[in-house]
Structures are given as C-alpha cells and as structure tokens.
Amino acid sequence: MKKLYIIRHAKSSWEEVGFVDFDRPLNKRGKIDASKMGDRLRTKGVKPDIILSSDALRAKKTIKAIAKKVKFKNKIKFRKKIYEASLSTLHKMIKKVDNKNSTLFLCGHNFELNMMAQKYVGLDENIPTCGIVEIEFNCNKWKDISKQNARLISFDYPKN
Q1: Which has the least CB within 10 A, 24, 137, 150, 160?
Q2: Collapsing DSSP states into helix, strand and coil, what is residue 77?
Q3: Sheet of strand 50-54: strand arrangement
Q4: What stretches of 56-143 show up as alpha helix (H) in DSSP?
Q5: Other beta carbons within 10 Å of 31
Q6: C-alpha dihedral over 140, 156, 121, 64, to 10 degrees?
C-alpha cells in the first residue's frame, strides 16, 4: 500500500507590499492553521516517510510547521518545479518516489492539487488553504498508482 497526503499551503498574506507571489509569507491564520493540521495528523498517528514541497515561502512555512508537529526527522525535499507545476508534472514526480517510502506528503498549490484529487479519487471539492486529502493506493510501487487503485481515506481542513 502507498499513501499520499495532498497538502495545500496555509493562508498567506497579501498585505505586505513588494512581495512577488513566490515570496508571500503565511498570515496569522495560516500559521495557526498549519499548526492545527499538524496536530490533527499527529493525533491520527500519521508519519510520513518522505515530504516533497514547493519551495514557495508559504508552502515551506506550512510544511515545516506540519513536519514539526508529526515529528518528521528527515530532510524535507523542496522542489521549485512544484510551484506552478502541471498535473502531469506532479504525477510524474510522485511516480518517481523511491518505493521504500510508503507514506508521502506533497505540499503545494491549487489548482493543480484540486485536479490531482479529482483525477485519483473524483473529489470534486475545492481544497481550502491548509486542506489535506488522504489517498490510499492498493499497490506496492509508486509507478503503479492510478485512479483504479486509489481510495479516498479522508479530506480535512482547518474549519472542518
């Protein structure tokens, strides 16, 4: 079994003048929500084997807060190509994950994350900021993940 957690970055700030989109920080609510969602994952006993994240500032801050809460000890793999990646690019990236890793956190941005949840499990809802979609794949290799062997386990977000 392989398990994928699709994590949308937490709420970011539009207030600070001079930041390009890539460098937008989390706002106060975003910081609180990232910590809250990390607590929820820890309470469920979730432990990722690997974390891939966009290296946009808001995604970095989100995943670092969540990783701290779930006591992730390995190095987070930040990838610039996750920022504004196509669904195809994200799918290819996941399929290349080493099979020794059973549980993957993928932190990024919408609309691609919405499209991914739709592709794998037919989730037709918007993933709100700091929302997490948990998908289980009935296969032993990441290259074999597909809609046919995917099952939605949970969909959670801060206001839920």
Answers
A1: 160
A2: strand
A3: 77-79, 50-54, 103-108, 2-8, 132-137, 150-156
A4: 57-69, 87-95, 112-121
A5: 16
A6: -50
Distance separating alpha carbons of residues 13 and 26, to the nearest angstrom: 6
- Alpha-helical runs (H) found in the chain: 28-43, 57-69, 87-95, 112-121
CB 31 within 8 A of CB 65: yes
The residues pairing with 81 across neighbouring beta strands, listed in sequence order, are none
* The residue to which tokens 């290349």 are assigned: 96
Which pair of tokens denotes residue 43? Answer: 């309470």
pLDDT tens, 97-124?
999 999 999 999 999 999 999 999 999 9
The amino acid occupying position 75 is K
Judged by DSSP in three states, 65 sits in: helix
CA distance 75 to 90: 20
Within 13 Å and on the Cβ side, how many CA atoms surround 37? 36
pTM exceeds 0.90: yes
